[in-house]
Automatic annotation (TrEMBL):
The gene is cls. Pfam families: PLDc_2. GO terms for molecular function: cardiolipin synthase activity. It comes from the Bacteria. Coiled coil: none annotated. NCBIfam families: bac_cardiolipin (TIGR04265). This is Cardiolipin synthase. One of its GO terms (cellular component) is plasma membrane.
Amino acid sequence: MTAGITPCHAHNDKTQQQCQRSDSMLVNQLREDGVSFSHDNSVTLLMTGQEKFDDLFKAIKQARSSVHLEYFNFRNDSIARCLFDLLAEKAAQGVKVRAMFDGFGNDSNNRPLRRKHIKKLREEGIEIYEFDPIRFPWVNHVWSRDHRKIVVIDGKIAYTGGMNVADYYIKGTKEVGSWHDMHCRIEGTEVNTLQTIFLRTWNKVTGQNIHGPQYYRGLGDVSYFHGLKRDTCDTAGDKMVGIINREPHTSNKIIREFYTHAINDARDSIMIINPYFTLNHKIKKALKNAAKRGVKVEIMLSVRSDIPLTPDCGFYNAHQLMKHGCTVWMYKPGFHHTKIIMVDGRFCTVGSANLNARSLAWDYEENAVIIDPCTTDELIQLFNSEKKDSFRLTEETWDAWRTPWQKFRGWFAHLLTKFL
């Protein structure tokens, strides 16, 4: 175990019982909110863009019946072209390829898919549709956007996490430098849950009615997928996983309930990395209370960001939480777009949801909640290894880093929390 945190299982029996209580409490709370958990999953963490795309491309190459992709955007660059070439190849072999992207996600990125690209993809056998296309008077995208990242292959293996399809997950950008993010591959019953989410959205967007047992093979034979990164935990194949899926009007509160419960249930430690740390009142209060009751709360934010104002609000919140006893690490090289929380060394999440108003109150989002000390420990090791490239926030480093104008900008941004 990396220095810097003692996992619950290294504590005495009493503390261990308290920590075990935190994960069982969370599971019970989420079950009451309609989340189902299964115990037969493997979760392989893909810690970099290179790892994610290498693994995903290998899996797609070996697909036999269907490839389903739901992304906020496919940036029209070299990695997307490689992906679409591969998907066209699979479609020519008779594999059903269905892809979906968000209208705003596409139009707001600087290399969008144009009509001519979509037409060409359809001619190559790829069924591709736009979720909520932007249309006159151009306000429909102001509210709910599809921010999920889901791929399901043959109904047997699934990918989810924080990455869209873009070169910068591997190459970085001029503006922020290297781009850090996380994804995971799931095998087991929760693949079926992710397939259900995909097909419900697909059928709604396309007016089709795609269904049937061939799409739900979560416990099917995956032995024909070769060369993929393995889940090396002893718990591989036996992990407890639940999918929290935020849909407007049906499960509005689920992401914020998860974070609030997870923080309130913590007895020992909380570690968070999140790029857009605007928070809502309940989560902010929960973090302050956790620190107050002696939980070791560590938060990692990036010094750099890809958007204006929102990070200023995050920095303001981080400074406030630091004053209430939380430890804040400011990551310097590149941009950490990773969205994870680890609690008591016992459970964690990997998914698409940020800690901003969009993810918590507006968008379609989805996270895997993994109740497993081994997977949680892998993320803790990532967190601890990133500390060497971070500075710790103190009053001194805060004053040295933020000018009076930047501090004011952060204070002003926090007044706009509900819109960021």
